[in-house]
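Q: Entry one of two.
A:
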Amino acid sequence: MREIDKMDELDALHHIKKVDAPEFLFTRIEQKLKHEKSAKMPAWALYAISTSLAIILFVNAFAIISYSKSSRQEANLAKAMNLLPSNNIYSYE
């Protein structure tokens, strides 16, 4: 019974007709694409964005460098005052 149902469904596929596209559809699409204005960003906006990103990059670099210098100074101070914890079980000092 199932095979008969499958055969009926497959026979329905033979009745499908090919659909043609309207004439000159491709040429109409090409012309619309040619005449459509592209979304361009003004030059002043590009300069503003690139300048602000460069400033942010330099500020971040300065912050990282100054943080690493201050953390080194703090580590040297803690070492000088013997405030660093030792994880060594056997202390030879």
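Q: Entry two of two.
A:
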Amino acid sequence: MNKIFKIKPEHKKYLRPVVGGIILLLGIVFMVVPFIPLGYIFLFGGLFLLSSEIPIFKKWLSKAKSKDKKDRIEKVEDKVDKKEENWSKKIVMSEEEKNNSEKY
């Protein structure tokens, strides 16, 4: 079962944009649905994840960083990068697994 969720190392670059897009869409849906108040959190989370891929989001993030005196955004960005690295280790195939899957 664990093998189902493994992706090849060359597809790792698509992980952050796909997850960011899904979270952004969830934020939009949750903003429309009146009984789920987490829409803005998901919306900003998705924009934050997509900021590395989309220039206008990167510009907004840098503007928000310049206004942040306590470096809270920088701390969140570091946490997100650490979590992404941990998830990548769990999800992305190692070279040994990749070679074994190509044999079959």
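A: Comment on entry two: The mean pLDDT is 81. The longest helix spans residues 72-91.
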